[in-house]
Amino acid sequence: MQDSQIQQEYPQNPKDDEITLKELIEKILEFWREAWNKKWWIILFSLPFIVYFGYKAKTDPITFTGQLTYSLNDGSGGGGALSGILGTFGLGRGGKLNLDKIVELSKSRNIQQKVLFTKIELDTLPGKKDYVANHIIVLHELTDRWSNKKKDWSGFYFTHDSIDKFTQDELKALKMLHGNLVGGKDVRDQIFSNVFNEDTGILTISATTRDEQLSIEYCKLLYEELKQYYLLNSTQGNVSTFEFAQSKSDSVYSAMQAKEYQLARFNDSHRNLTDPGLLTQKRIMETELLKLKTMYAEVTKNKELADFTLSAGTPEITVIDEPLPPLEPQGKSLLIELIKGALIGGLIALTFVIGRKIVLDALS
Q1: pTM above 0.90, yes or no
Q2: Which of 124, 219, 266, 270 is within CB 3.0–4.6 Å of 68 for a Cys-Cys bond?
Q3: How does DSSP assign 196-264, residue by residue?
């Protein structure tokens, strides 16, 4: 009794339950023979996948990607001494932050909608100019994507660009179109992108549409709107400072010129002065004129400083390369898609055949 218990607790041949390499090879060969015997099953099962992927490759629309590269030199006049002090502590707001800023600005609806409601003429809607937004809606069949049980968007177009007068449907369509452009929920292939290279600092605007000219025009229009908006906002403070200094300089100059005319008329009408009262009046005018000249020199210096700050602090946004036709058409390769369908269908069929054999062997 004790010997049998010892044999159960400590089997004499622990390797009996292990699978040897020979057994593993034999099992693989057995599965291979089973798969070979059922090869027509696998081929027939793969055919629908091959046909589907081939059909998708043939019917998938051709797209064109336009790319515009540009650089940003953000200027050095805006921060002054404070920027230098922050820089010594590693707190200066430098290049990458500005590149991130301009990338986010380019995706904003405020800038995108200015491009969307620019009219251009394409083959999409021949014979007339129409909004970029309507060209995109037609070319990319967006109304079909937007339509659902709640709302049928078939035949929708933008008829005007007064956004403050948009209906609820027009506002919703604008938001959905913006999502299709820059990416959003349930958007697989966004139309627009703006990225930068961290090593070189070069930015690239890309537009992928189903029309070559539209891709090119979209890149150019977006760049111009982005440049104008960024320059306006970046220099607004410096422009205000310069305009104030210019106004002050003109005011002091006018007062100085008036005082000089007054003193000249006084000297012309009171020659060979001996009256103490008139002499005192003359000295007062000369003192006031000297004060005005001193003030004018100071405000002129401030105006020149403001002008220099404006010039040095104005960002430089420069195009490096614009998109030029012809653009390379992009679409799915028929051969690759057929191979992909065969592999996916064959793998599923092979899994089923081997799984079926394992189950039958276990039951037998």
Answers
A1: no
A2: 219
A3: E-TTT--EEEEEEESSHHHHHHHHHHHHHHHHHHHHHHHHHHHHHHHHHHHHHHHHHHHHHHHHHHHHH
Which residue stretches of 69-211 are H helix?
A: 80-88, 95-107, 109-116, 132-139, 142-146, 168-182
Asked whether 193 and 181 are in contact (CB, 8 A), the reply is: no
pLDDT (tens digit, 9 = 90+) per residue, 257-311? 887 887 777 777 776 666 677 777 778 877 887 887 788 777 777 767 666 655 5
Encoded amino acid at 316, one letter? E
Exposure on the CB side of residue 72, measured as CA atoms within 13 A = 26
CA distance 94 to 90: 10
Closest by alpha carbon to 353, among 23, 26, 28, 39? Answer: 39
Map 263-291 to HEC letters: HHHHHHHCCCCCCHHHHHHHHHHHHHHHH
320 within 8 A of 73, measured Cβ to Cβ: no
Residue closest to 228 by CA, chosen among 116, 99, 293, 317: 317
User: How far does Cα 317 stand from its chain's mean position?
Assistant: 16
